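Let us practice reading a record.
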Amino acid sequence: MASEEELFASVDALLNEEPHLPPPAERARLREAAGITQARLATALKTTTQSVKNWENGRSEPKSPRLDAYQRLLKGWAAKYPAPGAAPAASVAATAPAASTELAASRVETADAPQASAVPAAAPARPAIRPAASSRRPATKKAAKPATDPRFPHGPLAVLDGDGCAYGVSGLVLDCPATTIVELVEWTLRESGLGAPKLNRYGKDSDPLIVLTAAATVKLGLPERLEGHEQRRSLRLPEDHPVVKQVAKAKWQLTQRGFGPWARIYRKAQGHERQCVQLAILSWDALDERSWPGVAEMEPADIARVLGVYAQRVITPRGSTAVSGLELMTALRPPTKPERDPETGNWISGHNPGSLGTEPMDPAPPEATPEHPVVVQSGWTGGFLNEEAYQWVRPVDSLSDEECLMPFAVGLDLNTAFLAAAARLVVGLSAPDHFVGPKFNPKIPGSWLVDLSHIELDPRLPSPFTPDGSRPTGPAWYQTHTVTYAQELGYDVHPIEAYLRRETGAYLDPWHDRLKTAYVDTLADLGVTKDLDDRQFLAAMEQHKQVAPALAAVLAAIKATVKGGVGKLRERPQGRQYKAGERWPALARPTWRPDIRAAVISKARVNMHRKLNNMAKMTGLFPLAVLSDCVVYPSPGASPLDFLPYAASGKPQPGGFRLGPTPGLAKVEGVQEMLWAIDLMEKGLNPARHIKGGDAVLDEGE
């Protein structure tokens, strides 16, 4: 075997033959051609890096022939391929650590760290840049940070108006000469400089997003509105529409979603370069008012800034917030990673541990929906999981005279309760296995058939085992967290049977962490920070939507991303033509996982009941109603400070509801008179649905 000096010399010679610095994949091929194994390279780099560090710290001057050869290699690279904006000549001390880190990237990068290209490809021609018009000032004080990846100098997206102006996220305005959809796609890929780097080293870069205003939509040959009897979000251009034909004639393709409000136009990737552009058409209701309040009516420059903040903190939008929430899971936990084939020595695509893989997985019968093929074809009649969010109203006759005389009903809402439940949540990653008479294990995710009807709890609290709060009447299927809570309350559980998964992992951890940071940072931009005391927090929450309406829209979109993403894990069939037993499109993706959705909702509901139970023990107060993550309490005052438990020091008591800006803590949902709440309860209505004013949207994660 050749010495290390000869190996480095071989690599140096190979690189000297290349007219341009090759991309990382090509460098790996060259190293392989030179006969360098990963183990020897890692050892050499470790020794060399330590030597360089010692040299820099003045401990000793490197004298080894190996380091001399490596320095020569680094000097050659630094001279021939200087970094953008760097001086042509750089010292070995400054260059060596960076280059060694680049060479050893596959060995030392963490699985969840973003990985930008070390050396950009030849920059395409850039469009002319116009100064932003003074009449279109940003609506927010803080805009998305400029893109740092040299491949995407103009950020992740742009909003195109009818005058050919494409408004970017950082205030720049690009000239877009496109007059057809095909020209727009080609301009976006070749000249716009739009896109975003991948969120995981094994993932894919985000495709550029072009948002079309109504004027731009018409200019490009599209109808201003999509009309029909179905919901507009499900409408598509017919296949014989001129624009659809134009796209096909130019050898571009549309996804199965067709040309709708969120159209994805692509060609098959060439090597590592993706060729795909995402379009969002505002006048076709691409930005739903509930998820993006007021955004569709903003000026193009402001729309770009709002979507840019979301793209920077969450992900470049790829559809509805629900779709983006699901896509974020995959972007942070890619299904595959490169690995070396032991037989051929070639790099192949292998399974990424901790991900859901590339193939869809059928659920256990009790985890499926009644129309699922697993249920219909097997004739399953054994019941289903009913892990849903709370919809409970306390019986009016259980109210005491003291409670009825309370002047106010105060609603508390838990911040992103589903997101809080996703934290450190262990879920199944493999297919379910059936067990009869298993011993319950709270560490194994799955579905358990257990009889919890013997558990008797205070009737002034909802049962933690059913969404409507009623006491179970016999054996039923429960997710692991629900059964674990029964044990926590002091009751024995004896499962009759179970569907369990042997391979487990905290699949949602990076998803939770990114969305939590986005939520907390956006609230902080609106003046609601972690250092506020409870009174200051309540005052800040009263005003935060007026501080910056655009950022308030980003906050609403982040919350919708959480609930929608969880709901997409069990997307039901759509359309009047569907027949039970047929497979629907959502079943073809690995992220159709109703068991994971059940785990999130089960944990969220258990968390809610635990707080309700602790509140009753600490204060003697019982709720009037619960709706998903909102609870209504009778109160002697119009503020939650009048009934929440505090220690003598003034600090909130642990275990109950606490005010604050982070997921799982509470904020005020609304305040009404107690007589108003009692009147609704007598009519069989839920005060938690209406306490905010109007009709609160109950989102069960569906």
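A brief commentary: The longest strand covers residues 262-270.
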